[in-house]
Give the backbone structure.
Amino acid sequence: MKMLGYYNGKCGPLEEMTVPMNDRVCYFGDGVYDATYSRNYKIFTLQEHVDRFYNSAGLLGMRLAQSKEELKAILNDMLSKMDTGENFVYWQATRGTGIRNHVYPDADVQPNLWIVIRPVDVQPLDKKVKLITLEDTRFLHCNIKTLNLLPSCVASEKAKQAGADETVFWRPDAKHGKRVTECAHSNCHIIKDGVFMTAPTDHLILPGIARAHLIKACKALDIPVDECEYSLEDVFAADEVLISSAGSFGLAASRIDGKPVGGKAPELLSKLHRYLWNEFLEETK
């Protein structure tokens, strides 16, 4: 199977899958999602992503029809049907199906489960990325992995038009001037004077799984970690600037807004990359 889709128990080629117009996602983006990658038909950090998925659903008052173990079994069964073991594994739950109404449907309306699996490799860690910056005008629930991604789509398109790979968001802040939060579809981090710095997991950023593994790697390598607020000015002055997501464990930036950045701590960066890549290979061997 080249690309596989699933909707509430029905599974088949992605291009043949359909969903009802009255799924609440069509009107409100009313749902949550998560995603990771597989290698050798093994889904990387699956338990952590499933845990976050259920946490996001709980924060929106959604009671999912499947248990965590049932969801993992469905994902692994679908993965076994693919032609290759290297895939992007995506799933989402919407609040249910019903006539358009801002109020939640009755309690007996079950959430809808969607899954998409398609062949994709994780990004090589030696790839350098280009970034742009943009004011963060998203809502104040960024810690929930919801389907309301229009601002991130706009930011991603602006990055593409600028010949860049990703957008760094910042918010006006009395203390920091322009406080960096995260990126359009990644977390953002900096290294300065040997210290790994990353924004705290408040309501302004998603608690990234790759972010957590970067912190774990730093602690294993005796690299100090500071979960703190920092500014856009700090980013431009950093020794290294990194972005991380499920498919890019810690890519270093070479330019932001057309200006050169990073490249001042190559040995530390190389140690981090080796640790992260070996962890991926070990868990998916």
